[in-house]
Amino acid sequence: MSVIVTRIDGGKFKAEADGFEVLSGRVDEKSEPVGMSPGRLMAVSLGLCSAFHVAAYLRRQKISAGGLSLWVDAKNEMNPSRASEFRITIDVGAELDGKQLEGLMEEVGRCYVGNTMRNAPKISYEVRAESS
Fold first, then answer.
1. Helices (H), the chain
2. What residues are paired with 5 via a beta bridge?
3. Cross-strand bridge partners of residue 16
4. What is the pLDDT of residues 9-60, one digit of tens each?
5. In whole angstroms, what separates CA 44 from the centre of its chain?
6. Residues 89/131, Cβ–Cβ less than 8 Å
7. Cβ distance 26 to 11 under 8 Å?
8. Are 14 and 8 in contact (CB under 8 A)?
9. 57 with 108: CB under 8 angstroms?
10. Nearest alpha-carbon partner for 34 in 53, 51, 10
């Protein structure tokens, strides 16, 4: 999986993957932001991944849900600046018994984004600069 991020202007960027694009940032401090911040996009990714798994579980179990909503709340810390905790509240819009709730929690635990965040991936950087 690869994503390419390019600067459009100032602090405004475009991320592209699989024929889709996401804009984020702002040209300068006086301009309006474009799109969500990278931190919000991280929380959005966690929420979307979790929602896909919840919906898949409900569909497989043939549980009729009136509505499915998720809220992702992040607790932020400084030094270093980061999200230190995520709390996901899931409203399935249906009654679940204990076995169904257990199955749903097991399924949502398969979320790729959540698993990545829980298991501290290795992150490396390579800088390419032109020689003078």
1. 38-60, 98-108, 112-118
2. 15
3. 4, 21
4. 999 999 999 999 999 998 888 999 999 999 999 999 999 999 999 999 999 9
5. 4
6. no
7. yes
8. yes
9. yes
10. 10
What homologous superfamily is domain 37-132 in, according to CATH? K homology (KH) domain (3.30.300.20)
Q: What are residue 11's DSSP bridge partners?
A: 26
Give how far Cα 44 sits from Cα of 5, 24, 72, 104, 121, Å.
Answer: 18, 13, 8, 20, 19
- Three-state secondary structure call for residue 9: strand
DSSP state of 70: E
- The yes-or-no verdict on residue 132 having pLDDT over 80 is no
For 77-126, the pLDDT digits (tens) are 999 999 999 999 999 999 999 999 999 999 999 999 999 999 999 999 99
Rounded-to-10 torsion of CA 70, 71, 72, 75: -160
The pTM for the full model equals 0.90
Domain ranges of the chain: 1-35, 37-132
* Angle at which helices 98-108 and 38-60 cross, to 10°: 140
Using alpha carbons, list the distances in angstroms from residue 128 to 97, 125, 131.
55, 10, 9
